[in-house]
Amino acid sequence: MAPPEQDALAVRQQLFHDRVRECIICALLFASLYILCHFVITHFKKHTDFTAVHDDEDAAANRIALGLCTFTLAVALGAVLLLPFSIISNEVLLSFPHNYYIQWLNGSLVHGLWNLIFLFSNLSLVFLMPFAYFFTESEGFAGSKKGIMARVYETSVVLLLLTLLVLGMVWVGSAIVGSDAASRQPLYDLWECYLPYLYSCISLCGVLLLLLCTPFGLSTMFTVTGKLLVKPRLLEDLDEQLSCTRLEEAAVSRRICSASCWLNLNVELLREQFLAIRSKRRKLELRHRASPWQRNLGYPLAMLGLLALTGISILIVSFHVLELLLDDAAMPRGIQDASLGQVSFSILGSFGAALQVVLIFYLMLSSVVGFYSSPLFTRLLPARRDTPLTKIIGNCVSLLVLSSALPVFSRTLGITRFDLLGDFGRFDWLGNFYLVFLYNMGFAGLTTLCLVKRVSWGAQAELLRACGLHKLPLPVTRPLGKSC
């Protein structure tokens, strides 16, 4: 064999081995995420929906839908880890450019992961989750033989009709926005235009939902931190408060025990008062058992960490707003070729990259907390061992929408300089300057407002409690025209 032919064969073999290695790595990563998500959903699912006591067919259908939900949740978790994994990979390649053991970590692998997450996100949102919902609600066509296949046929027909309806609405909306024939011509291509365009609309809704939930979640996390950790109090004598609370609890308990038919006592009111005093006593005992380090350092350090991360996020977004006004390169446009290991995506190097990863996870956690704390979506909050399947489907769809919009959200706000890979960078609205600028201004304004409001109210309440002014009776205003 001639040397040129040997070289070409060696190149083809290397490409084959690289492709096989990437497929194995992707399969292992997704299998790990799937197993983790399976344990999470099993922890929250309602076991009576999956037992074969009432109907074997319903239990089997629920198990199939549960598998689709696990797949969707694994995709959502992968979308959350996608951008941090890419940033860390770039820094690792910069630090060890010629290390043999990390040669598998390359731009082709990262680019393939972005394409897979985009593909599976489209598949889950457009087909799998609607199929899971209709499959659990279906019973088969009238007159047909009952069974799983009858449900599959009915679900497929309903899903086909729903798909035609949605695609028709997308086509009509696009035709109205762009009235010329050139703008409508690409819409005849289902795979190259319809799905990316539909996912672009879903991603825009997810990014807007992140904009609303993240500032609210940042404010809620300060409150949750105060409830989970022992909060130090100024000028507080725990021993005296605990002794008074125990005496008060014992007095109310004796009044309840001595109540009889000839005593004019409201037993229900006394029981409510007793439960409130007992809850207060348990909180005081928990604070009393806490060590001085936990009581005086745990809560302040956690609050300082939240304040620092929130302040850094606001500062980065503010600088990004100035960059949008001065430099057109700050727009979140995507690229097609991954150039990992060439240059760091932060001016602070590895420390800046680590800070970007922490901020991305922090903002995602804040958005999830804000989503479940908002009045519109509080009912979706899962309960341990008591979450029905329909609520699990709703949670999986919501988390997938939020997580798949996280890379676009982080790049739009300037949290990271990592350009969007794959089809994530094909969204048309990413090139709209006014939309991106207003989005950054809205996030900075809402986050600053929530932060100032939460910190100022917390400091004011603590000062009033330390000075004892919270015990003073509030002034009562008498309506005009009425006398005692």
Structure at a glance:
The protein is built from 13 helices and no strands. The chain has 484 residues and is mostly helical.
What does this structure look like?
This protein is mainly α. Helices cover 72% and strands 0% of the residues. The chain contains 13 helices and no strands. Helix 3 (107-137) crosses helix 4 (148-177) and helix 3 (107-137) runs antiparallel to helix 11.
The count of β-strands is 0
Helical residue percent band = over 70%
User: What percent strand?
Assistant: under 5%
- Total of DSSP H or I helical runs spanning 4+ residues: 13
Whole-number average pLDDT? 77
For the record, give the distance between the C-alpha atoms at the N and C termini, rounded to a whole number: 112 Å
The structural class is: mainly alpha
Report low-confidence residues grouped into runs of 5 or more: 476-484
The run of helices and strands is HHHHHHHHHHHHH
Specify the biggest β-sheet: none
Present the secondary structure layout.
Elements: H1 3-44, H2 56-95, H3 107-137, H4 148-177, H5 181-184, H6 190-228, H7 238-257, H8 267-289, H9 292-326, H10 350-373, H11 389-404, H12 406-413, H13 433-467
Helix pairs in contact: 1-2, 2-3, 2-10, 2-11, 3-4, 3-11, 6-9, 6-10, 6-11, 6-13, 7-8, 9-13
List its traits.
single chain; mainly alpha; 484 residues
